[in-house]
Amino acid sequence: MSSYLNISRSNYFASLLFIIVIAGSIFFYHRVQAVDTTYTVCASGCDFTSLTSALANPGLGTLGNDTVQITADYVYVDAGSLILSVPDNVTVECLVGAPPFGNSGGAAQINLGSNVTIQDCTFENIDFSATNKTNVNLINDTFSDVTSGDVSFIETNGFKISDNTEIQRIDIRNSDNGIIDNNSFECRFYDNCISTTVSGGSYSISADIPSNIDITNNTITNFRTGTLGDFISLDAGENINFTGNTIKSDVELDDNFVPMLTMQNAEAYIAGNYFLFPEKVPAATNDTWGVNIRVNVANATVVAEHNTFILNGTGSILGGSSCFGVFDDNNPAFTPTISLTADYNLCYNPSVDAGGTGVQLNYDSSSINMIFDNSYNGFYNLSDLINNTNPTPPLLFTSLDGTTTTADPVLRTENVDTLDDYDPVSMSRYLDVNGINDIGALSAVRLVDYLIDDDCVVDYTSCVSNDSDILNTVIKSGDTIEIASGIYPPMTLDGPLNSITIEGAGSSTIFDASGVGSTLTLIDIDDSNINDIKLQSSTAPTITTYEITRARYTDSITTYDQFVNLDPEIPNGVFIIKGPPIANECENDIIDSDGADVTAAVGTATDNWNLVLMDYLGNKLTGFAPNNFISSALDFEGCADPGDITVEYFINDIFTVSGGIFTYNQAVADLVGVSVKLGDTDPPALTRIITQPSEGGILIENSDDHKSWKFKSDQWCHCLNKKCSK
């Protein structure tokens, strides 16, 4: 009996174990084989009639990665302020024609779970939040431009925000491994379009700050007139990559100080971005900084390269705007380090007048450890390349690296396309600047063989310009330039350059000086070819000037040489009158040596000059006056207040003129018994000097070893400092 019972008991447990195993296997099989489910939301005939009810489905996302589709005939019925939650493992997808979710009646809060994607939808007055989640995505969504919409990530690991339009703001708090790519931001309700910061932790502890955030290829546009800036606020973080973005404002701003990107207490790589400075109200006095680097509670490390900054508005003219600015809060608690490496950046002021600063340093070296490295930056039309206002000497950084260029990059403004207006032309010297790298956000291979045509459609590939004047700004050694048929202004090439080739189309490629100066000027151009061009209408007008010797006179009793009493710094002074008496004054110059330029007094060289020996305030002085200004002693005494001048000798025609040449008239001086003081040039001379300028049909200076010059010109060739031939 007992043996039987033992056998039965064993069979019972074996059977039970078999049933449990089979049941577990069936359960495991169904879990493994679970099929992702798609639920539809529409007006009728679908799984749900509202997004609210769909998201409330208790089985949503529990057995697989489910999808909620909002269809075109869905009618939004959820009104007022809502708080919705998207469970884990769910994709909310809007089909073509699906209506916007949300309304202006009240803001909705949508809390996002892990492994959640919201894509292809339109939202109005919706805020999104993900806290302590993973793998959260907003893809190809459209946000309202009339209501606010905020996206925040708090201690979330892994998120992607890409291909969205009109997005208002993204707030990242101690979240890691995020991608913000190819979005269009319209910042209408917040100062910060993107911000990174802590979530109650320490700025100096890696676990408490955002890390591994890529912000790439976005267009970030401000629409707030009263903004205080910080369109991008990187308040904390490490390994933040801010690359390929465009930051701008589509509205005129109030007169506020505006930093476009502020980076503090963080570590970031900022590259390939376009910073288009905002316009401000007329007479604005506050500045704009492109990249503002500052510290208050932790170190800041920035590598900024290949960025383009385009200054604009009042600030650029006043000179306070800056492409880079460094600022500290004078935090006494510790001595933080600011490290800035700036290479290959373009800082461009498009205004007529120079203005703005490349790098503005405003920190206290007694409380900040500053590290600044730079190379190959291009700073054009700025008032200052670097401005160091450090209040504590010594000023460690007062100049930029020797590779810095201030030349004009020549931007792309001749073509129809306006999207590339802030890029250098395809043959700019800012491209391949050191043989490899480019200055600014554009990355391109520089053209070395290009066409200029006054009648082409410029595309910067087949034809680079209608204007030959561009050549002197862009040409580099080794370039080959074809100049098509047409009429062009005079051309100057100013080196040092060598091995250049310029090919015209023959006598139909015409450079015309229009009767002023040289048609072709070559300075420091060696070992080059210039072929098949025609030069015409050059002139070399003469320049006429007049010089006079210093002469003071005596009548053997009185010497009229006491100017030292009027001005000890001009002890040998002689008056030259340049205008008639007006209100007891005469325009005049004081000369005290030979060779004084009196061209202005001579005028048209048709009037004789008179000699005046006078008593002026008790001082005996000598003066000369053209007859058209002063023709009598009475005229001369009108050059000062009544009684100040007594003319003792007025001698007409001391210099006579004929055909522009002046002759000294010794006879009239002898007639009254006056002569030149011993030691002064005698006889005095008023001399005409005719200068032939260094110009010609072809002006060649410091240039030799030309392989060939082939051009048609019936004018002259003028060479300076080097042997040259035609």
What is the compact description of this entry?
Keywords: Membrane, Transmembrane, Transmembrane helix. The protein has 726 residues and is mainly beta.
- How helix-rich are the residues, as a percent range? under 10%
Describe the global form.
elongated
Rg of Cα set:
41 Å
Largest sheet: number of strands, sense, barrel closure = 13 strands, parallel
Structural class: mainly beta
Unreliable stretches: 1-33, 710-726
Count of alpha/pi helices: 7
Strand neighbour order, sheet with most strands: 1-2-4-6-9-12-15-18-21-24-27-30-33
User: What percent strand?
Assistant: 35-45%
Overall pLDDT level? 88
User: Count of DSSP E strands?
Assistant: 57
Regarding quaternary structure, how should these chains be classified? single chain
Distance between the termini: 133 Å
Features:
13-stranded parallel beta sheet; 726 residues; mainly beta; 39% strand; 7 helices; disordered C terminus
Explain this structure:
Among the domains are: 240 residues; 115 residues; 145 residues, no CATH class. It is elongated and about 125 Å long. It has seven helices and 57 strands. The strands form nine sheets. It has a 13-stranded parallel beta sheet with strand order 1-2-4-6-9-12-15-18-21-24-27-30-33. A twelve-stranded parallel beta sheet has the order 3-5-8-11-14-17-20-23-26-29-32-35, with no helix packed on it. Strands 13-16-19-22-25-28-31-34 form an eight-stranded parallel beta sheet, with no helix packed on it. The termini are far apart. By secondary structure, it is mainly beta. Helix 2 links the parallel strand 1 and strand 2. The N terminus and C terminus are likely disordered.
